[in-house]
């Protein structure tokens, strides 16, 4: 039997399952999501440990600062694999229950009409469904900005809200009935990306999915099949692993109605070329990464706040060996900010305190030499690097593409005051590749004028997610913040991607989202690599999401305090 015939048989089976799934009620879909969530919890150990094994490559012997590399990797693998998947499934189930009862999941949110005419929907903390967001994510909130069709419904606030609610109900009713099949091409850097993309296709669009894992993740096929077994048993999900030839053959099948990929611009171009070569091409969506910036608004920070925010940036660089599509790659400061040198010094010191990790992703060492002009270490690791005082003219290659490396640049913008810096920062970010997400540190105690300028900047940044005082990757972990590039991308100019995932609330007209965290939290965030109990907390959160109950919350307190 040829590979082509095998793939055709797979997609024929998937189409049959999709046709059956279309007839399911929202309540029945919710039951399937909850059953899958329970299996993810049971299969989380095998999934996470295999993720650790794939990325260790002997680095345990080199790590001796605060924690073992295995503990750090385990915390990362739980959080970005089964934990984020479990949370997405629980949110999906809750949203479907609300849709069954009320037509939309409005009770899981609060919304209002903003002064700019958009609808702002508060999605975090999530109320009433037992996720304990108000405690677990204390001090954090997330709001989604949605546009409305005011031309046909009127410009006043009431008309805009009515238009939004109608559009929301329409989307929640009809989008899950799209049906058909989807080919999901998983990335090789984070084990949870492919499963999450597949879940979004199944529950948000009603498509049955062939999930092709990256060759690096071939050993995860069985753990993922077990963790997602209700979807597999329902015929809605088939998981395989392999190279680009599988994608190329599958796209040529007339039974494939949609392709979603997470990867690079190069991968997208290859897939798009194949799509254009067939007579009935599938629709295409993608997430293509970002030169992720972290903007430091000039102001007067306390020493504690400055240190915490420098730690936040450092952790976003160190996490997963900086092999995330959202790892901070560019810090933007102000040349006249008096605390700039101190901030960079704290950031450098934190990075230097951690031994390098193995360059496990293919091509990392060669890319390192291209970016830095230096010879990569012979021991297979790559050092954490912060290159300060970049010049847009002299170091253009740092800004034009996302480098899958533990390297971050810093550039100073010359500005007369805070407002001037905000305006220059907006213009500068538009010269940097990508529109996926940006993080912004904002001081307290700003004048009314400066506060207004910062707010204008936050609204003007062209990113799918803008985070304030926290890493924008948290938006992905929340599960109900739509994830994707800023609207307007096209196949000819895909920027950070086309379409979105993680929209279990079926919010219409999504433009951007904003998440906000505390400038200086009292506890060390558990995703910081130097958190001494990060793995234990990730396991505790898995247990809480699976079993619920106040006792499972209380059990985590000692690990929070020890961190």
**Straight-line N-to-C gap:** 55 Å
Mean pLDDT across all residues, rounded? 93
**CATH class descriptor of the domain at 3-66 and 97-104 and 176-287:** Alpha Beta
* Physical arrangement of strands within the biggest beta sheet: 1-2-3-18-16-15-9-10-14-13
Spans of at least 5 consecutive residues whose pLDDT stays below 50 are 58-67
The SS-based structural class is alpha/beta
Q: Largest sheet, described in full?
A: 10 strands, mixed
Name the features.
6-stranded mixed sheet; Aldehyde Dehydrogenase, Chain A, domain 1; Aldehyde Dehydrogenase, Chain A, domain 2; 563 residues; alpha/beta; single chain
Topology:
Layout: H1 3-21, H2 26-42, H3 44-56, H4 69-102, E1 110-113, E2 119-124, H5 133-136, E3 141-146, H6 150-153, H7 157-174, E4 181-185, H8 193-205, E5 208-213, H9 221-227, H10 229-233, E6 237-241, H11 244-251, E7 258-262, H12 265-276, E8 283-287, E9 292-296, H13 303-318, E10 328-334, H14 340-352, E11 357-358, H15 364-372, E12 381-382, E13 385-387, E14 407-413, H16 418-429, E15 437-441, H17 448-460, E16 465-468, H18 474-478, E17 497-498, E18 510-516, H19 534-547, H20 550-554, H21 557-562
Parallel strand pairs: 4-5, 4-7, 5-6, 7-8, 9-10, 9-15, 10-14, 13-14, 15-16, 16-18
Antiparallel strand pairs: 1-2, 2-3, 3-18, 8-17, 11-12
Helix pairs in contact: 2-4, 3-4, 4-8, 4-19, 13-14, 16-17
């Amino acid at each position: 039997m040829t590979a082509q015939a095998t793939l055709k048989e797979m997609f024929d089976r998937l189409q049959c399952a999709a046709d059956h799934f279309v007839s399911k009620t929202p309540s029945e879909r919710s039951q399937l999501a909850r059953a899958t969530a329970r299996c993810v919890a049971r299969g989380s150990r095998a999934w996470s440990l295999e993720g650790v094994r794939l990325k260790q490559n002997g680095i345990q012997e080199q790590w001796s600062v605060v924690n073992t590399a295995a503990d750090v990797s385990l915390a990362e693998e739980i959080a970005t694999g089964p934990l984020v998947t479990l949370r997405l499934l629980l949110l999906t189930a809750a949203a479907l229950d609300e849709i069954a009862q009320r037509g939309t999941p409005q009770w899981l949110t609060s919304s209002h009409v903003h002064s700019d005419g958009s609808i702002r929907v508060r999605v975090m903390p999530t109320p009433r469904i037992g996720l304990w967001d108000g405690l677990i994510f204390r001090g954090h909130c997330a709001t989604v900005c949605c546009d409305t069709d005011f031309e046909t419904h009127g410009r006043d606030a009431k008309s805009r809200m009515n238009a939004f609610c109608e559009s929301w109900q329409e989307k929640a009713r009809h989008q899950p009935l799209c049906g058909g099949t989807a080919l999901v091409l998983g990335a090789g850097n984070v084990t949870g990306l492919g499963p999450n993309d597949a879940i979004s296709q199944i529950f948000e669009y009603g498509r049955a999915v062939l999930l092709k894992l990256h060759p690096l993740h071939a050993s995860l096929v069985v753990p993922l099949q077990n963790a997602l077994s209700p979807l597999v048993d329902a015929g809605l999900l088939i998981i395989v692993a392999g190279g680009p030839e599988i994608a190329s053959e599958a796209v040529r099948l007339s039974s494939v109605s949609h392709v979603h990929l997470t990867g690079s611009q190069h991968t997208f171009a290859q897939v798009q070329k194949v799509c254009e070569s067939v007579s009935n091409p599938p629709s295409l969506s993608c997430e293509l990464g970002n030169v992720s910036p972290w903007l430091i608004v000039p102001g007067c920070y306390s020493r504690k706040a400055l240190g915490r925010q420098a730690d936040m940036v450092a952790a976003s660089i160190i996490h997963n060996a900086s092999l995330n599509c959202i790892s901070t790659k560019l810090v933007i400061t102000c040349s006249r900010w008096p605390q700039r040198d101190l901030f960079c010094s704290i950031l450098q010191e934190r990075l230097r305190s951690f031994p390098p990790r193995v360059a496990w992703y293919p091509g990392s060492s060669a890319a390192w030499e291209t970016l830095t002009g230096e010879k990569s270490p012979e021991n297979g690791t790559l050092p954490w690097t912060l290159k300060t005082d970049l010049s847009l003219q002299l170091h253009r290659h740092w800004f034009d593409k996302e480098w899958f490396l533990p390297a971050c640049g810093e550039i100073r913008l010359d500005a007369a005051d805070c407002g001037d810096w905000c305006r220059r920062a907006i213009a500068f970010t538009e010269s940097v590749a990508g529109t996926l997400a940006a993080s912004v540190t904002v001081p307290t105690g700003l004048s009314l004028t400066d506060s207004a300028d910062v707010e204008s900047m936050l609204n003007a940044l062209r990113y799918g997610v803008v985070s304030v005082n926290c890493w924008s990757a948290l938006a992905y972990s929340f599960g109900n913040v739509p994830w994707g590039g800023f609207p307007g991308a096209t196949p000819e100019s895909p920027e950070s991607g086309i379409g979105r995932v993680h929209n279990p609330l079926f919010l219409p007209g999504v433009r951007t989202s904003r998440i906000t965290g505390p400038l200086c939290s009292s506890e060390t965030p558990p995703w910081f690599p130097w958190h001494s109990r990060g793995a234990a907390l990730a396991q505790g959160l898995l247990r809480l999401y699976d079993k619920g109950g106040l006792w499972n919350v209380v059990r985590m307190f000692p690990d929070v305090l020890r961190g």
